[in-house]
Amino acid sequence: MNGAINGPALDGMANNVKVSGATGITFLNRSGYVNVTSGNGTNLAFAVSSTGTNFAATTQNLTVSANYSAFVGGDAFNSPQLVFTSDDLTAPPSGNAKVRFVNLSPSPLNETIYVGSVKIDSNIAYKGVTGFVPVPAGTANVIIQDPNDPPHQVTMSNQNFASGKIYTIVLTGATTGTGTAALTGTMVNNN
């Protein structure tokens, strides 16, 4: 997922080769899951689609049959960062969905996230990723807030969480941003 403020379209790269199905990813868009070769010391990167210039990178060990997500966040003009995490795609308990949170905002916020009355986690700083938490299926508001900075709360009203589905809530933008650079919550369906 491309969550870098002011960022260009990006191509997913694995060991300096474009990943099929993960090219031209614009801000707040994603490729979905794609196959890459497993192994130790895999160089994963996002490169600028128009030039091939490296934008953000990491080296990871990839296991056969495992699922992972790669997010690029921060500000394109100030050291964008690649956030990499493994994904637990096991089904949630009956009548529930599963939700996790990824903070891609470079603002100095320590976020707490709620889905309805369920607290997903707290004190999630820039580049932080929570585990998946079961939430009751149905419609709920999502609240992303730093208790020490109430004016910059993000509310995502009436989000639908379907039974058996897995979601990632992503925070992008900055407290000083406007337009597409404003603090924004985006919900991604993992399955």
What are the low-pLDDT stretches, counting only 5+ consecutive residues below 50? none
- Per DSSP, the total helix count is 0
| CATH class identity of the largest domain | Mainly Beta
Largest sheet data: 4 strands, antiparallel
Q: How would you describe the shape?
A: globular
Write structural notes for this entry.
This protein has 191 residues and is an all-beta fold. The protein folds into 2 domains: 1-87, no CATH class; 89-191, Immunoglobulin-like. 0% of the residues lie in helices and 50% in strands. A hairpin with a 2-residue loop joins strand 8 and strand 9 (118-124).
Summarize the SSE layout with pairings:
Blueprint: E1 10-14, E2 17-18, E3 39-48, E4 54-62, E5 68-75, E6 78-86, E7 96-103, E8 111-115, E9 118-124, E10 133-136, E11 138-145, E12 154-161, E13 166-172, E14 184-189
Parallel strand pairs: 7-13
Antiparallel strand pairs: 1-2, 1-3, 3-4, 5-6, 7-10, 8-9, 8-11, 11-12, 13-14
Name its key features:
single chain, 191 residues, mainly beta, Immunoglobulin-like, 2 domains, four-stranded antiparallel beta sheet, four-stranded mixed beta sheet, 14 strands
